[in-house]
Amino acid sequence: MIPTYNEAENIERMIKEILDLPLNIEVLVVDDFSPDGTYKLVENIMKNEKRVHLLLRKENRGRGFASIDGYKKALELGAKLILEMDGDGSHAPKYIPSIYEKMKTSNADIVSGSRFIEGGKDEDRPITRKIISAFAKKYLYLILGIKLKDPSSGFRLIKKEVLEKITPLLKAKDPFIITEVYFYAQKYAFKLAESPIEFFQRLAGTSKLDPLILIKYLFRVLKLRFSN
Q1: Which of 50, 81, 111, 215 has the highest count of CB atoms within 10 angstroms of its CB?
Q2: 3-state SS of 163-177?
Q3: Contact 137, 149 (CB under 8 A)
Q4: How many CA atoms lie within 13 A of 187 on its CB side?
Q5: DSSP characters over 133-190
Q6: E strands, the chain, where?
Q7: Residues 166-205: pLDDT tens digits?
Q8: Is 54:77 a contact under the CB 8 Å cutoff?
Q9: Contact at 8 Å (CB) between 211 and 135?
Q10: How far apart are CA 71 and CA 74, in angstroms?
């Protein structure tokens, strides 16, 4: 499940790399009516590839709302495992098999692709972003008790039972959805595990993440903790 907004430069390559994996896998692109025509490229792929699906959203845009609708659609399509990842190339499809293997061997309910465990890498990003990630890890553990080395990772494999339980509780319209999923999963005693990945700079295009949003998240974490 790939939430997208203006990823026309990346989405075809991403879909190809995913479908080339030796797994029984399908792709659901959840596009927020991208002005650059991302969804049109997906529609073109769908003409010859039945494993590709599109959920086109024209209202209530936002990364969080896209994920929530994407979870619901994936469950509707009969998915037993839902892997969520970004469509900009920062999450490399080559790691999907190892994340899947980790779920089988650890019997976890969610496996997160982690930059900060042995074998993981986060070398290409600016030092400021690395500092923010390090602070977020400690902050989310202190306030929410999320026991992950990389709690801001949106590259994750989730069992359907988790999403069936927590999706009705999710409210974030933006990337804060990443934190909400981990918080509620842990609250209801689902098992979390991590698998090493290397986080890459996006293949093309411009990042949508505003550093000011990250600051606002600090307060939203407190609200999430003390309203639940």
Answers
A1: 111
A2: HHHHHHHCCCCCCCH
A3: yes
A4: 17
A5: HHHHHHHHHHHH----S-TT---EEEEHHHHHHHGGG---SSTTHHHHHHHHHHHTT-
A6: 2-4, 27-31, 52-56, 81-84, 110-114, 156-159, 192-196
A7: 999 999 999 999 999 999 999 999 999 999 999 876 445 4
A8: no
A9: no
A10: 5
List CB contacts of 219: < 8 A, sequence separation 6 or more.
none
Q: How far is CA 152 from CA 28, 66, 68, 86, 185, in A?
A: 22, 17, 17, 13, 14
Q: Which residue, chain included where needed, has tokens 């606002």?
A: 216
CB-based burial label for 122 (10 Å; 0-12, 13-18, 19+): middle
Q: Is the pLDDT of residue 209 over 80?
A: no
Tokens, residue 133: 């990630």
For residue 29, give both structure tokens.
Answer: 């692109």
Q: What percent of the chain has pLDDT over 70?
A: 92
